[in-house]
Design goal:
216 residues; mainly alpha; 9 helices; globular
Length: 216
């Protein structure tokens, strides 16, 4: 990457990581709800800016949309769990469209089986954890997103694993709703797993799209 690209684009990733880390260490501190609200949305919101700066075309636009919806969901969740969930549902649908537009030409049997396990297993486990049928409906989109990511042509060890980290983060949230008491684990792990997953997805997809359309 050229020095100009480093100056113009890497700071968006750095700012995203700084905002996400700041939120993680300050979320339970009395610095003011507005600042926490902004920090939480900035983590993935700045990934959307990074994707906008570094990609072109329809696929880039869909990626930006998916991150923008996720960033909005992060903040709205603080006000309404249902509204935040609806925004995440929409984000998953956008991501599914992106991954299906970029299916891998050849996939092994094991890869297809894993995608099927994600498609079926994610909503099933989500329902077992939460006991809520609405959560299972939401998780159907979550599982489809993860399965589609695993079957896409984007780097599996970033985009595929990133999507799985997103799933595990949501499972920890759902565990708070049902009979599975995981103690402080959700408080400790939900945000790092979620943000790490989104960061891996962003860099993996952008790297692939950037390699094909480097003009921007």
């Amino acid at each position: 990457m050229s020095k100009r690209a480093l100056i113009e684009h890497r700071p968006w990733l750095l700012a995203s990581v700084v905002a996400a880390c700041a939120y993680y260490f300050l979320w339970n501190n009395p610095i003011g709800e507005l600042w926490l609200f902004l920090l939480k949305g900035a983590g993935v919101g700045l990934l959307a800016v990074y994707a906008f700066k570094r990609t072109n075309g329809l696929d880039g636009g869909i990626l930006v949309l998916a991150f923008a919806l996720s960033a909005a969901a992060d903040t709205v969740l603080e006000l309404s769990f249902e509204a935040g969930g609806a925004l995440f549902f929409a984000s998953h649908l956008a991501a599914i469209v992106l991954y299906l537009r970029n299916r891998r030409n050849r996939t092994s049997t094991s890869q297809k089986l894993l995608a099927l396990v994600l498609l079926i297993g994610v909503p099933a486990i989500s329902y077992l954890l939460s006991g809520d049928p609405m959560i299972a409906i939401y998780a159907a989109a979550l599982g489809a997103m993860a399965g589609a990511a695993w079957m896409s042509r984007f780097p599996r060890y970033r985009v595929g694993i990133g999507a799985v980290l997103f799933v595990v983060s949501d499972w920890l949230i759902f565990s708070r709703m049902g009979a599975f008491d995981l103690g402080v684990l959700p408080d400790i792990l939900v945000w790092p797993l979620y943000y790490a997953g989104q960061l891996m997805i962003a860099t993996g997809v952008v790297q692939t799209l950037r390699g094909e359309h480097p003009a921007r």
